[in-house]
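User: For my dataset I need records formatted as: sequence, then structure tokens, nothing else. Please produce one.
Assistant:
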Amino acid sequence: MIVIYFFSTKSQQFFAYVWAIFPVIAFFLVSFYTLDFLFSPSYLIMVPVFTIMFKINYKKDYSFVALLKMSIRQFVISFLAFIASSSFSWSIILNSSVTFLIVYLFYSSATPMRYHSYLMMFTFCQLIQVKGNTFLMQSQVVAFLIGLFLLALTLNAWWQTGLRQLTSLKSRDHVRFFKSIQLLAVINFWHDLQQTFFGITSFKQFLESPDERVQRFCLAIRMSFTITLSFILMWSVGGIKIIWIPMNVFLLLHPVKAEMNTRIKTRFWGTLLGCFLSLFVVNWLQLPLTHLIVSSLIGIFVYALKPGTVLQVTMATIFGLCLATISLRGMYAAELRVSFVLLAIFVVCLIDLGLFVYQRILRF
């Protein structure tokens, strides 16, 4: 009886959790297949960006103006990423400056990961490898995903509140809603544009303690140096799936060094386990369609599991290799994955050690 009770309780908790994150799973599957059908499989690297955005924000209550500002920021960042991907010189200039600004302007001790989705957009947009890719093509993909993101948030709000509450909310806030569109959409957006892209700090930032400002500055420097070095390696080394270096570097970075050290360990062991298990999976996949179907099913576990754990990294590795083995042999793709993860760990540790030594020299 105890065993039956244990498993029944665990099963109830599991299904309750799956039901709670069902909107995230649905968003991932819809964006995955519509992007592949309407555009190109090479743009699927953008799906994690917007799925993470949706997972972070789908339980929050945003106004129309806040969503508008978030969408415009992401579109502007994607444009800067496209310029950064156009040449080696622009890559160094923009990765060092834009990464610094994103982290410095959006990080705070109260919301330490607020910068994450913006930096992810800037990093991953540079990793799009589509022959003849133009900003018009890329902007269509980004605009489509932003529209899907906003639509999903709206449908989720209806799902959560119900039609009755939504109707009462409309009747109560109808006038205020449209006034906010007419007045605040211009005033607040221009103020936010200045604060976000021109470095004009808010009054709240002036109230920060000196230690917190120094902490933000040091974190922005560390992130900027690390991301820039990863792209220098990408441009210098070249080769197949070289984009896995900056991608893994980004996934390893975290404001808290203890968490970053944990990510390094879980990324290493999860990648090894995922590469080993993927060899048994990809050998059964023959057609590109089967690769897409299996990778989408595994992708569900990537966003359902707790981020940063060995199991979640294992699933993410299998997900990536199922897509990569459409054009590569399984063993070769696994070897590249492990090699680039080790190189990414080296880059993160090198910058961290270099900044630590520099700080020690300044103290003496």
